[in-house]
Model the fold of this input.
Amino acid sequence: MDMNIAVIGTGYVGLVSGVCFAKLGNRVICVDKDPGKIDVLNAGGIPIYEPGLRELAAAGRAAGNLTFTTDLSGAVRQSDIIMLAVGTPPLPSGEANLAFIEEAALEIADAMNGYKIIAVKSTVPVGTNERLGELMRSRTNERFDGISLPEFLREGSAIRDTLHPDRIIIGAASRSAADTMARLHRPLTERIVVTDIRSAEMIKYASNAFLATKISFINEIANICEKVGADVTKVAEGMGYDSRIGPSFLRAGIGYGGSCFPKDTRALMQIAGHVDYDFKLLRSVVEVNQDQRYNVIRKLETIFGGEMAGKTVAVWGLAFKPNTDDVRDSPALDIIRHLVDQQVKVRAYDPIALGNFQALFGKEGVAWCDDAMETARGADAVCL
Ligand code: NAD
Done:
């Protein structure tokens, strides 16, 4: 079934979703308020790095069912389903900043010209969808149904994750709107869970918190393994064959980063705090993760006998994980900052994330390299 869809926010989530829904034969208008992004997209470029996205976007444009614009009102008027995929970055308190999504919801309300489904893909605290609905109702008399449609894609494999999702969660108060959303997603999977809106919002946070817990758990096991002479990769393999545990998210390392796990775990602690619940387990997960970043520094200090100043350390990899240019909350930011503060000469390399990293970190104090081997040449240590 072809549908007319407007996707508001063409970042990692919105752009991938829009391109994939166009591939399924829907007519999709992707909207962003950043004219620079829209210009790049209209010129056939892609403002982010995501494998396979450029080709799929080109196919959508060639087929005539994928367009990009800054005109939110026009896109809303031409569409029956509006998907919100704007950012919900963390506030200093850890809570999600809802300013962007509230602004977008009001703009949508002002453009309404008949019944529409408003589906929220952005990760938002429990109760937000209801509040957005009230906000919109204060501005429009047109009918609409709000849907919580949490997103689970992973950067680096976002297209595969979108076209072959493990599940689709539809949080709805209206049966018919839920049915429409289920029809839209049925070409992707039969595993569609329809639930109330608050449960859908919670499923997203609970899923990310659980995955973060797995990562911190295996990192603590790794730290103990190093002390008792066990090999954590073998331990993880042995654990992972247990179908109750599963093999994923058991790779020990420098901990999670990126634009989701750090912010969503902190936001869930805040959500719990607001109802007077102290989420002790998650607090430890976050603490373990933050400390894990400094493990690599402690190792270097041990190797160099405490003499860090003047040593040369190469860093391979600046994004928070491979196959993405997203450096938001990347452990490399803290690690390199710490090394530079200790007067270590840092040489850094990343095949795709260098520009984004420099935009956050600044260009000073680090030798930026454009070749992995050149970065490592002459270094006292290489951090991966
Ligand atoms: P992003 O920062 O990459 O993109 C957000 C886009 O929204 C930006 O391009 C911005 O210009 C645009 N925008 C903001 N306000 C707007 C407005 N009023 N009108 C039009 N465009 C507007 O963010 P993202 O990484 O795609 O994440 C979006 C949401 O999805 C967040 O809530 C995030 O937590 C959630 N999420 C992200 C991922 C991920 O891997 N990145 C995965 C699952 C869920």
Summary: Residues 8-14, 31-34, 37, 72, 85-88, 100, 103-104, 107, 121-123, 151, 153, 155, 259-260 surround nicotinamide-adenine-dinucleotide (CB under 6 Å).
